[in-house]
Amino acid sequence: MGRIVNTRTLPLLATVVVFVLIYAVCAVQYPAMLGLRVMGNLLTDNAFLGILAVGMTVVVVAGGIDLSVGAVMGLTTVALARLIEGAGLPPALAFALVLALGGLFGAGVGAAVHYLKAPAFIVTLTAMFLARGCALLISTDSIPIHNAAYDILAGAALALPGGGRLTLVAGIMLLTFLAGGILLHGTRFGAQVFALGGNGHFAQLMGINTGRTTILVHAFCSLMAALAGIVFSLYTRSGYALTGTGVELDAIAAVVIGGTLLTGGVGGVAGSFIGVLIQGLILTWITFDGTLSSWWTKIAIGALLFLFIAVQRLILVASARYGRSGAGPAAPNTPNQATSAPASRPSSGAAAPSAS
Amino acid sequence: MAVTPPPVVLAARGLTRQYPGVRALDGVDLTLRAGEIHALLGENGAGKSTLINLLTGAQPRDGGTITVDGVDIDPDGPGGAVRAGIAAVYQEITLLPNLSVAQNLYLGREPTRWGLVHRSRMNREGAALLRRFGLTIDASRPLSDFSTAVQQLIAIARAVDLSAKVLILDEPTASLDTAEVQTLFTLLRSLRDQGLAIVFVTHFLDQVYALTDRITVLRNGRLVGERRTADLPRLDLVAMMLGKTPTAESHLSRRPATATPAGAPLVRAEGLGRRRLVGAFDAELHAGAVLGAAGLLGSGRTETALLLFGVETADQGQLLVDGKAVTLRSPRDAIRLGFGFCPEDRKLDGIVAGLSIRENIVLALQAKRGWWRRLSTAQQHELADRYIKLLDIRTPDAEKPIQLLSGGNQQKALLARWLATEPRLLILDEPTRGIDVGAHAEIVRLLEDLRDRGMALYVISSEIEEVAAYSDRVLVMRDRAPAGLLEGESITPAAIVNAIAADHHTKGAA
């Protein structure tokens, strides 16, 4: 029986509670927000952010951070527009190309983090400037994409009851979350990501190739950023170098609100999904209200982030305090020791495992 | 020599490792045989850790060969060493507390189905593996749910399952209590009987004789010799380790203060305690006297020091310094009163690993003076050199990063840090933990010198014989509460053990 609330699931639980609360407030005030139509739009509008959050979750669980995802996304949209409009490439080929480049870019970032032993913060900041600069070099204007196949993909949607639509981009996001969840929680690679985030040195002592893991983690994150770029270009049917300025921070916010610890080793994509939805929901609520500036979203997200960071800290402190007295075999109330103090130790040590 | 020795599993020849300024290992040989437990012994800085790091590939070697089953190996990292059949378990548990027990056991080699980790099978196999090591636990639970002793057994299970040829144990018993040590020994003996070659690094000589078959002794990075444990009397072993004929364990002869302390105590704790931390205890600390504290791990002995140094704030009782009641809200308050504290975990709470020895030594004095009254570089050098000489800290110079020193020398540097502030009361928590026999004697001698110069000392130690040797009074802790106070002639190792183990009240048994 032990502890009823697991310190690992408590942050996620808190996130779900906050989401339900916000959703309830929304539903009471604007019953129209309950429908699948609003839900469908919520998923479509935040598809790119969700995909970024999947990549970011993996990096943060591994104990790192990636500030370049917004810039990579912007670079992807403008590169796509130039490849399709300028070079006349079929969209499928252009997609494959930008995804491959995105992955390679991330691998380079990961290699720099590992081999230069440089903090991910600085390396990805550098990568952010690099990617944004390249994007602006390609074009400083927004390039519209006129392509038949593009129009079909952008318009593709599954009709939901109640007039809602599950668009292709929303579907891609949901699939990305599913894939990210399986990658992180179901594969050997995922276990290595958690190991790296838990303690990189110990992971290495246990025979994990931490260099390979670091490179793959960043490659995956940039791949997701490129995919987010594709999704965003489908959503807007254009490419613009300044797309996604600052969204890396929204993605990090979603990850942290979702209960993934910035110190690494604990977390998952399910929480990040809810983190994205919370951000989208607040924006939708402000849109419904109509009188508030949309910048209130940022204020609300800021307040929420602060709340979650405080909650995580409290949980850590509480688990350190009660965890010590709980896990330590020497429970304070063992007055009836049979013979001697040393002899009492193995029995209470055995009691801890059997407490499951 | 009638018995034919068992086959050699691992042979290391001429291993050499050069650090800047120090040859940490100089042409050392090590021979491990199947079905033997081999003690690797030596004083601080003898090269034990370096030798282990070369065997496990954690550090590259500058010379020499390692063969396993007659095949040359050159591990490029822990992964390579594990593939060659060498695995190590460290005093500090190097598993991942954020993963489950089973994930820790099978990290990197999880059973898979359809390309995904087969979690239920992994948990099942993990539990079955641990049962063979005498642990019946749910392997799907997070590692952090379990005690250090259990985590250590899990680490051993992982290492043996990974590579069943050579198992290296670096100070495995340092954080275990007596019963847990016995469990570990039973396990190691059964592993030995299965044909494993086990390297056992420790500074507990009793454990060497209780467990091992063969002994290799290192000193100053060189091989002193290899002997069968049964053929090597303890006195000769100590002589090999110290490189001199010791006067038989002289530091253990009782040498209490020349004059029994009289008059008002410097510091007096009356019913000091804190809920959830430690029950109310009394303590009197006199100038020129040593109050020892004994007890098992988790008995609350460290917690008494935390209260006396203001790391934790007491919520009951009172503390009198020079007869005046004071409240310690932080270590700063304690330092201002002239207290010093050498904590138990040097790496975690004590040394600033990246800074030089000089910077570590001047730290406390500088903090006491306030940062605007900076010690000049010349003063710092003078101070550092004086204490390096006084405490015999073995280092080429004061500018070496402290993390490159051996444990005993780090401990001395920490001691120097507090001595530089010329404290009136010095609190030491496990001053000889993780330190070898020779340095034990040195540290004990240092403590006696400090006491004779009129300092009040509060020494927490699990080395009961040492506590008995240098203490004027001994506070015995049990179950986070005081269990007795021994004074004068009644202080003997046997009496302390009795007080720790007694199930009746021995309070005031003097």
UniProtKB/TrEMBL annotation, chain A:
It is found in: Cell membrane. It is a multi-pass membrane protein. GO terms for molecular function: transmembrane transporter activity. It comes from the Bacteria. InterPro entries: ABC_transp_permease. Residues 340-356 have a biased composition (Low complexity). Its main location: membrane. Pfam families: BPD_transp_2 (PF02653). One of its GO terms (cellular component) is plasma membrane. Keywords: Cell membrane, Membrane, Transmembrane, Transmembrane helix. This is Monosaccharide ABC transporter membrane protein (CUT2 family). It comes from Nitrospirillum amazonense.
TrEMBL record, chain B:
It holds the Pfam family ABC_tran. GO terms for molecular function: ATP binding; ATP hydrolysis activity. It comes from the Bacteria. Keywords: ATP-binding, Nucleotide-binding, Repeat, Sugar transport, Transport. Transmembrane segments: none annotated. Residues 10-245, 261-504 form the ABC transporter domain. CDD domains: ABC_Carb_Monos_I (cd03216), ABC_Carb_Monos_II (cd03215). InterPro entries: AAA+_ATPase (IPR003593), ABC_carbohydrate_import_ATPase (IPR050107), ABC_transporter-like_ATP-bd (IPR003439), ABC_transporter-like_CS (IPR017871), P-loop_NTPase (IPR027417). This is Monosaccharide ABC transporter ATP-binding protein (CUT2 family). It comes from Nitrospirillum amazonense. The lineage of its organism: Bacteria, Pseudomonadati, Pseudomonadota, Alphaproteobacteria, Rhodospirillales.
